[in-house]
Design brief:
This protein is an alpha/beta fold. The chain folds into 2 domains: 2-107 and 304-431, nicotinate phosphoribosyltransferase, CATH 3.20.140; 123-295, Aldolase class I (TIM Barrel). It contains 15 helices and 21 strands. Strands 13-12-1-5-3-17-18 form a 7-stranded antiparallel sheet. Helix 7 links the parallel strand 6 (137-140) and strand 7. The longest helix is centred in the first third of the chain and has 24 residues, at 109-132. 43% of the residues are buried. Mean pLDDT is 93; it is low at 432-437.
Length: 437
Amino acid sequence: MVESALQSRIAGQQCVFEVFARGLPPGRAYGVVAGIDRVLDAVTRFRFDSETVRHLQASGVIQSDLMADWLRDYSFRGDITGYAEGELFFPYSPVLTVSGSFADCLVLETVLLSILNHDCAVASAAARVADSAPERLLIEGGSRRTDPESAVAAARAAHIAGFDMTSNLEAGRRHGIPTSGTTGHAFVLAHSSESEAFRVQRDTLGVNSTYLVDTFEVLEGIRRAVDVVGVDIAAIRIDSGELLADSRSARCLLDELGAYKCRIVVSSDLDEFLIAELEAAGAPIDAYLVGTRLVTGSGHPTASLVYKLVAIASGDGAAGLRAVGKLSPKKRTIGGQKTVHRTLDANGYFSAEVLSVLPVEVPERSLCPQVPLLRNGSVVAVDGGVSSSRSRCVDRREYLQARDRTPWPRTTPAVSTIWQGIEEPVSKAVRNGEYRS
């Protein structure tokens, strides 16, 4: 596309692209933005070195010297505005707005979407878990279920959306996320007995580590752990079985043995649905370690974000940009660069997300989620770090009603999109049913 655009002379025309999702997965009330920090790093480093250009020429991907020269000289020189990390998004929210020359913007599509679709999917799943167990310690443990670099990104996205800790030490090193873990079944099986494994762990790591008690039988494992470690044992982990019944039995036995302060950590293919059921049943669980379902988006491994051209210069000397948009059935896009604000109801909850391509009056009690990220190719965003993004996500979810912060929300999405001054491409939120577009 870029090579053809260079030939047709539209490559240098100013334009605007937007990243958005046409809808949320069925049953989802909101999405969470994550990956913006990675996007800014990727865009500012995005280059085509001489070796790469030679490969593209030799393989026939590019044909002309004009294209080769353009690639060698490439760096993004435009502007990016977007939703800050930890912000919520809804159908058609312009998560990113990318402005610059047509060719400069066009070539960024894959790098932007690959990062945002992954990180937003993980963050959206993580927030649902955090909503389901707001008083519990949440540990991300999905590194073994995804690509190594994706594992680090997933740990970061999960922490932004509400997880307290990660088992991924590289994520801890890069991003300052607290790390946590336990021994595995192989460690127990490698020793002559379960008691011997606990004794070695106690002598090496002390009473404050977490002891895995379900290798053979949970209650016997607990008895051996308390016998070896003592009543000051900090935590046990249960990784199999009927978690509700086992956690109740474990709590009763721990109290009977005098280990009143021992915490119960559970794992085993957890997701927001099972965690919500355990919490509703009053399971005496102190911490959840969530892996596979979390890092794969809990059934939705992509945020379904797309990157679409919404405005471009006419190229005939006319001032300004003309709006452009697809008319394809079920894939319609609304042309024109969008501005956004969110209105609040009398109780302080989000009532609507208002999108417009024209100047509009923004009520005083509104939230504007768009912030400048890049100007002329240079980062201008104030980097508050992961902790700032995490706090933002907590704050924004407080603007949603409790009935929409469950795995079974009242409406999907929780906040309606209002198109001010332009035709609406999407239906309102649907109560107690699937999202319709």
